[in-house]
Amino acid sequence: MPESVFVDIDMYQITKRGQNICGDAFITRKIAEEQRAIAVLSDGLGSGVKASILANMTASMAMKFVAGNMEFLHSAEIMMEALPICQVRKISYATFTIVDCRASGEAHIIEMGNPGCLCMRGSRPLELESRLMESPRWEKRTMRFSRLHTRPGDRIIFFSDGITQAGMGTDAFKLGWRREGCRDFIAGALASSPHMSSRKLAREIVGEALRKEPATVAGDDMSCGVFYFRHPRALVLLTGPPFDRGSDRRFVDMLRDARGRKVVCGGTTAGIVARELGVLIETPLPRARTDIPPVSRVAGVDLATEGILTLTRAAQYLEQGRPADHSNAAADLVELFLESDIIHFVVGTRINEAHQDPTLPVDLEIRRNIVKRIAALLEHRYLKEVRIQYI
Length: 391
Known about the structure:
Elements: E1 6-14, E2 24-31, E3 36-44, H1 48-67, H2 72-82, E4 94-101, E5 106-112, E6 118-121, E7 124-125, E8 129-134, E9 142-149, E10 154-159, H3 161-164, H4 178-192, H5 198-212, E11 222-230, E12 234-239, H6 248-256, E13 261-265, H7 267-277, E14 281-282, E15 297-298, E16 303-305, H8 308-320, H9 329-338, E17 342-347, H10 367-380, E18 385-390
C-alpha cells in the first residue's frame, strides 16, 4: 500500500451450536517486501472437525499458491485433488474467498462457492469488474475473479454462508438474511459510523446475523472478514525511565509531539511525564476487584497504567484472547492496540531493581523482553506495523 494508506484486516466468527470447533478457516499474511496483504476465508463441507480439516487445508494451500503467484485455475485443481473425501457425501469440498491487495492499490479477489463479497466506498456499495472461469476437470466449480482499485475509505467485506443464510426458514427470513440484507445493514452501519474499524465491523455483522437466528443460536458456522483501507491510526507508548536522567525531557517530548493515541505504562514513567508536562496524576478507585492495578489519569495522555504487571497481562490477552468478564487496565491497553495501525514503543532502559527479585513470578519479565513479546504478537498475529525505540 502507499505509505499514506494502511490495510486494517480483521475477522470474527461464531461456531455452530453443538460444535467445539469452527468449520470455517481464516488466515492472513502480509508480505512486507512486496507490500502485499492477503487473506483467505474457507468454509469446509458440513461442520465440526471434518469441516475444519477441509477448510484449513484449503485456506493454507490457497495462501501458499497466491503468495507464490501461481496460476490460480491450476492451483484450484490441485487443491480439489488434495482434499480428503467425505465418507458420508463422497465428495471433497471447501469454498473459499481470497483477497490479495498490492502496493499499487490493486485488490484482486478470487471466490468459489462463498457468498459474493461486498466492496464499499464509504457507505456506498461498488460494482466489481469480474470474470468467471470454470475448471474442465471439476463440474460446478466456477470461480469468480474480480479486481478493484482501492482508495482510502474503501472496504472489502466477505463472509461464509452462515451469515447470508442466517434466519433461514423463519417467518421474517424464509430465505435467510441473504447478501442483500447484509449489504443494507453494512451501508447503514457505515453511514452512522464511517470510521468503524475492521474489528468492530466484523463483529457487528456477525452479531446482526446471529440475531436473525431462532433463539439467537448459530445454526451454522458464521465468519466475516474485513479489509479497510484507511489513513493509519498511530499509537505511541512510553514505558520505563530513560537510562540517562538527563534525557527525561526528550523522552516526554516524544510523547507530547506524537500524533495519535498516547499511552504511558509504569508508575515511574507516569511520574516523569507528569513532572515534565507540569500536570498531576490522578488515580481513581478501581472499577472492580482485580489483580491488575487501576488506570490513572494524566492530562494529555489517553491511558496511563502500571508497568510490568499490566504489560504482561496484555501480552497474555493478545495470545489467548481476553475473557469477556475481564475489565481492567490491561484490557483497555489491548483495545487501544487493536484499534491502532502503527504502534511505536519508546522503552526506557534504566533497570528497575524491584523487578529483579527472584521470588517474583516468572511472567514478570524485564520490560524490554515483554515489549518484544507484545511487538511480535502485534506484528505477526494482528498485522500491525510496530516500531521499538530504546532510550
